[in-house]
Every structure is written in structure tokens, then in C-alpha cells.
Amino acid sequence: MSKLSNEYADVIFIDDMPKSVLAAIVVSLISCGGDWLDTPENILAIRSRIAFEWQSLYMCGVVPQKPRGKMTEFLRDELVEVQG
Q1: Alpha helices in 2-69 (DSSP H)
Q2: What is the pTM of this model?
Q3: Maximum CA pair distance of the chain?
């Protein structure tokens, strides 16, 4: 495992795929083919799910990178909501 590769990335030939294509695939899969992109609330829910998946993959040792940037805001907001 490295910052550029992991066991999951190897499955999908990540070296041959632009990041924008990968992002489109992820959003399409998580949003039922884009059907759930109709409201701001659904978009926030999708971003939150992506942040939590990244956190889970990091904690399980699948990826070495911690969630960062705007992704950490989603993790903090959800933690406050769960504890609140």
C-alpha cells in the first residue's frame, strides 16, 4: 500500500483512469445513477457518506491517507449530531 495505490485501486486499473472519471463513477454509484442529486440535502448526505467511507477505509488500513479538507467537516458535523 502506498499513497498512490492500494488493494482496492488495483482492482479497477486506477492508473488508466482520470480522477474526474473515477469521481463520476463514485457519485453515480452512491446516488443511484444521479437520481439522488435533486436536492441540497441529498448532496450533503452523499458527501457525508463519502467522508465516512474514507474514514472507515483509513481506520481499517486500506488507505494511508486520513480524511482531510472539507471531508473532515462532515465527520465533525456527524459526530456532533450523533452525540448531541
Answers
A1: 7-11, 19-30, 40-59
A2: 0.73
A3: 44
What is the grid cell recorded at 47?
458527501
Query: Which grid coordinates belong to 18?
Result: 482520470
- How far apart (Å, rounded) are the C-alpha atoms in residues 50 and 81? 17
Our CA angle for 53, 57, 62, nearest 5°, is 155
Number of Cβ within 10 Å of residue 51's Cβ equals 21
| C-beta of residue 54 within 8 angstroms of C-beta of residue 63 | yes
Torsion over CA: 34, 36, 40, 44 (sign):
negative
Whole-angstrom distance, CA of residue 84 vs CA of residue 80 = 6
The CA distance from 53 to 60, in Å, is: 10
Could you report the per-residue pLDDT of 23-33, keeping only the tens digit for each? 888 888 888 88
